[in-house]
Amino acid sequence: MALLITDDCINCDMCLPECPNTAIFEGEKYYEIDPDRCTECVGFYDHPTCKAVCPIDCIIQHPEHSESTDELLIKFKSLNIV
Question: Which domains does the chain have, with CATH numbers?
């Protein structure tokens, strides 16, 4: 699954530098996550780093982007072709 930042976001900037896929960006009102780039850190870390640093716990599973770990790994490989 991709992750989603809810409108509870306070724009603290903690998540932005944590994303290894550069999926997080500044939206009009708060930070957003590009579901096409989000791998929930699969391929990089054991857990999503953005969720770990969020001080208000406003990052959730995206209800419209359900992906298995295998699918996230395939996405990771396609985004990080060397």
Answer: 3-79 (3.30.70.20)
